[in-house]
Protein: alkaline phosphatase
Organism: Mucor flavus
Amino acid sequence: MRGIAITVLSLATAATTVLAGSKISANRPADPEGQYPRFGACPDPHACIFPPDVSTFLPGAFFDLRVELHAYDKDTSKPTPAAYKEFKTVIRKDRGDWVDINKFFKIKSTPKIENWTFDWVDSIETQFSKFLNNTNKPIEVAVASRAWRKLKITTPGDYEVKVEYGPKKSYSAKYTIVEPKKPKKKAKNVILFISDGTNVGMVTAARALARKHTSGKYEKLLTFEDFDHLGHVITNSIDSLVTDSANSASSYATGHKGTVNVLGVYADSSDDPFDDPKVELLTELIRRRQPKKAIGIVSTAYGQDATPAAWTSHTRRRSTSAEITDQILHGMGNWTNPVVPDVWLAGGAEYFTGSKALNKKNYYDLFKKSGYNVVMDKKSLLGNKKKSDKLLGVFRTGNMDVWFERNLFSNNTVGNKAHPSLNGADALGVDQPGLSDMTLSALEVLKKRGGKDGFFMMSEAASVDKQLHKFDFSRAYAELIELDVTIKNTIKWLKKNGEYEDTLILVTADHSHSYDVYGSVDSNYIMTHDDANDMRNAIGTSSHSGWPGYFDTNGDGFPDNWFPKVVLAAGTNNSPDRHEAFQTSPKGPRSPTVETKEGLYVSNPKDIAGKLGRGIHVESNLPIHEDQGQHSMSDVFMYANGPSADLFKKTYENWEVFFKIAEALDIQRPGKHE
Ligand SMILES: *[C@@H]1O[C@H](CO)[C@@H](O)[C@H](O)[C@H]1NC(C)=O
Ligand SMILES: *[C@@H]1O[C@H](CO)[C@@H](O)[C@H](O)[C@H]1NC(C)=O
Ligand SMILES: *[C@@H]1O[C@H](CO)[C@@H](O)[C@H](O)[C@H]1NC(C)=O
Ligand SMILES: *[C@@H]1O[C@H](CO)[C@@H](O)[C@H](O)[C@H]1NC(C)=O
Ligand SMILES: [Zn+2]
């Protein structure tokens, strides 16, 4: 094979994207086998470059570059060798001459070398040394590093960054700066709905609950199932098959693969979660290239959670909620324009005021000072008259309550002391807005503020994932059905407001749970028969997998009765130790496991299904420290409707979603001032 022949990556049509993606990888080293690498996306024995090999950028998009050199001895009885003292970093374009990196980016002084160490846990035996009573120690790695901040390359083409270290050693990473294309049909507005942790199995189940069928034929599909285009998104992260919500949302928001727990950065090996090399967010790019466009973030989670935070924040650790709250307003110093969304609606009040807020500052006051109208309950959200003001809605500490507790069992929220003012009062379920209330209220403000420049909104049904983690299937279905009703109401709003033709609507997930249905189950039989084997007979498979008893006769999109006799026999491919009796808990979300004194997780006797061993015993097939169901690897759906929706058909990777949205919005090209 000849050298690295790379043609300019064209994102003009969906057909070329994945092909082009694999072209960049041609002749590059394959990811190695193994669960305990020294460091993710670091195939060289000593050198790492971030962004890593085969990264792709829009022309002019900001990024930080970090080079790390790793010195170590695998024999842990020996002292750690000294860090590398010197190394040289160079870059070339289109296989031309190598140029010193500082010269290329017109940087006057080379960044100083930073040193630190990190522990490389290199095996299962070392990870679980305490459990195994062995004396295995992690390998200490001495790091020398340099970081170049806020770089950009405006000329499309192929670039290669190389680090030369030690005698005659080098490692290089290849980058592609894409050739921007005008969209065939520009989208004035983009609404990205993310149904967290939702796989195709969940969509099928939600349809079975929410839609009428006759002779086995559905009268109607779910609203989003009727969209014009359907694509298939590959969700794995840079160094793990199974992704979390942070790096998957971050891929959508940046066009780069991520590592578990990262938002808007490539993970480096230092302890500091805020020094990792950043990549520019779609929302930051909108602020630079279409500054009058309005931006909205809506979620039923705490708003510092991974999926919403991915659109405002840069951090190695998604759990740095106080800093994430600060970044909503202030970004990362002067790295680039902070996002300062026009609308931000979610839970997570504990990081706005009180002891958990950054430096105990009152962020409600800071948001007010920077022009936000602040609302704290459903009534004031729906009654919002200040539609031309920026809007901050914080409705609860922690995650917002789920649809069940907001609509059916508000009494379960009595005593939660979760009022967003942190005054110790309750945030009752009935006083919290639903996803539809939040999304439509956001649209009112976004339309007013974006005007002819339009808007970008991310709206998340967060608790599909959260309830699936706990095997509370009924609550998970309700969250997904709520999203579908929200989409229906959104389309109605867009049509009424003359925005429908100009709005690209995307409905996707960030990753899967391995949810599926294998039959139906008589939920009464299982509760009234005590023999363990007899309980299993409540499950009807194949020809006995008859329809469940959910009907929507009042046409609100939700089943009228959540407690029918026959329900779906559902499960996932992984579970901690628990019991499953296929019941819906009226007393609040399920808690299927409980921790023992030894730190193991076993079936919770207080869980509705666990009582007296009621239900089918599901033995754990997870590592000993896992107390809940885990995400899974399957690709996720992408439903797309409106201008440029055809970009989202076929199969592609999560990082490519960024480039597709950027093309639809026409923000691929650097502005004149860049
Ligand atoms: C980094 O480590 C090298 C090698 O041990 C040492 O020579 C150098 O002084 C260190 N630099 C800093 C800034 O600590
Ligand atoms: C580790 O030691 C403890 C205490 O002696 C013992 O109970 C346990 O079985 C040992 N674990 C293994 C995996 O050998
Ligand atoms: C960012 O701010 C720092 C300190 O305030 C300053 O030294 C640096 O030059 C600024 N960088 C840019 C790109 O404005
Ligand atoms: C909720 O609690 C109130 C007061 O205890 C009670 O009157 C009401 O019936 C309860 N509602 C439901 C739906 O259980
Ligand atoms: Zn999850």
